[in-house]
Design brief:
Low-confidence stretches: 1-25
Radius of gyration: 32 Å
CATH class of the largest domain: Alpha Beta
CATH topology of the largest domain: Beta-Lactamase
Number of domains: 3
Helix content: 40-55%
Number of helices: 17
Shape: elongated
Mean pLDDT: 84
CATH superfamily of the largest domain: GAF domain
Largest sheet: 5 strands, antiparallel
Strand order of the largest sheet: 2-1-5-4-3
Length: about 375
């Protein structure tokens, strides 16, 4: 079972750093050329960027590209800078005087940067060149890592909400996550309807969900998913509070699916979140699946029986009485609490409830009748 394999994943099974190092053992030629171009703009010295196996990937001296730099191989071997003077340059193949320094990423040497010139004159700038180079490399590879992890997360989530995922590939992908994927699970779906850039929403989501055991990403053009796992489910209210603040800045609707306790139940959790999201767009408020679970049992809201049910139940009800009925349900059928909510006298409230009974044949203070009226309200909102 996929479930058993996933639950057993530990943080140390594969670190993000070691995985990324496996993907980027060597610098790309494009990145090497960019390092050379940007560095030589500020220096009056030739710059070489060399791969871990000693091949010069990029250089201000184009004739040196693709040659083997034996001095750089010494740097890779020791992990330390290597100074080459006139004498040493004759002993090492394709080497000129200068300083060669390791380019490190997550404490791994992924390349070498060399500055051509008298090594005694380069001491002051060598460390700065090395630092600048590593900053450029870190930015590019970290962005690549984030992009890969985002795509990996999207793949995993879409596979999990399918009824029959490819378990072999899925398990391999899950082991490359930077956190264990553990039960329980809960899915939140967001719909972005505003004029703001969707990139703003993505950045805000990343800031809220950063470093938590949560899969999140984009499903469709304006639809985003958040899949909480393990301890993150316990923090649901805190996450929802932050998302609610975000909603004040961006026009988004939110549907919260039911909590599920196995991998196999995730399709159910996703469908529940999707139904809740659809309802939230209708009523213009965040919706939990539990709030509409009874409604979902009626698969076709446009069915003739549903239309007849609504016409005979709420047909003669005024807007004021509908609002009263809704407030009464939100107050758990408590007269005093509802009267305070509506800021009316309890006798006025009782009169309105009796009026609803007179018009519909259902009395809101009777549990069975209240259930029918509540269902009618939900169906009318959705329609």
């Amino acid at each position: 079972m996929v479930n058993n394999i996933i639950i057993g994943v530990q943080y140390n099974c594969i670190s993000t750093a070691s995985f990324l190092y496996g993907v980027y053992k060597m610098l790309s030629i494009k990145l090497a050329e960019e390092i050379v171009a940007q560095t030589m703009l500020r220096l009056h010295h030739n710059i070489n960027v060399i791969s871990p196996n000693g091949v010069i990937l990029a250089s201000g001296d184009k004739e040196r590209i693709d040659l083997i730099h034996e001095g750089a191989m010494e740097v890779v071997k020791t992990g330390m800078p290597f100074l080459i003077d006139e004498t040493l340059s004759k002993e090492f193949q394709n080497c000129k005087p200068g300083i060669n320094m390791p380019i490190k990423f997550h404490d791994k040497t992924i390349g070498v940067i060399g500055i051509t010139g008298n090594p005694n004159d380069l001491n002051e700038i060598a460390n700065l060149v090395q630092l600048t180079t590593e900053m450029m490399v870190h930015q590019v590879l970290t962005e690549s890592e984030s992009e890969w992890q985002r795509k990996n997360g999207d793949f995993i989530f879409k596979a999990l909400i399918e009824d029959e995922p490819n378990q072999g590939i899925l398990t391999e992908r899950i082991h490359k996550l930077p956190f264990p994927l553990k039960e329980p699970f809960q899915i939140i779906l967001l719909k972005h309807d505003g004029n703001h850039s969707s990139n703003n929403l993505s950045i805000n989501l990343e800031n809220i969900l950063y470093k938590q055991p949560i899969l999140y990403g984009q499903m469709e053009l304006n639809e985003y998913y958040i899949c909480l796992s393990g301890d993150a489910v316990k923090n649901l209210n805190s996450i929802l509070n932050q998302l609610t603040k975000l909603r004040k800045k961006l026009e988004i609707h939110m549907g919260i699916g039911p909590e599920v306790h196995t991998i196999e139940e995730l399709p159910y959790g996703y469908n529940g979140a999707k139904m809740a999201l659809a309802f939230s767009q209708e009523v213009q408020q965040d919706t939990f699946f539990e709030e509409i679970e009874v409604y979902t049992l009626l698969k076709n809201k446009d069915d003739l029986d549903v239309k007849k049910f609504l016409s005979k139940t709420l047909f003669d009800i005024s807007e004021k009485l509908l609002n009263t009925l809704e407030a009464f349900f939100e107050s758990d059928l408590q007269i005093n609490l509802c009267a305070d909510r509506l800021q009316i006298h309890r006798h006025t409230l009782t009169y309105r409830l009796n009026k609803i009974h007179e018009l519909t044949g259902y009395h809101p203070q009777n549990f069975k009748d209240a259930f029918v009226l509540k269902l009618a309200l939900m169906l009318s909102k959705q329609r």
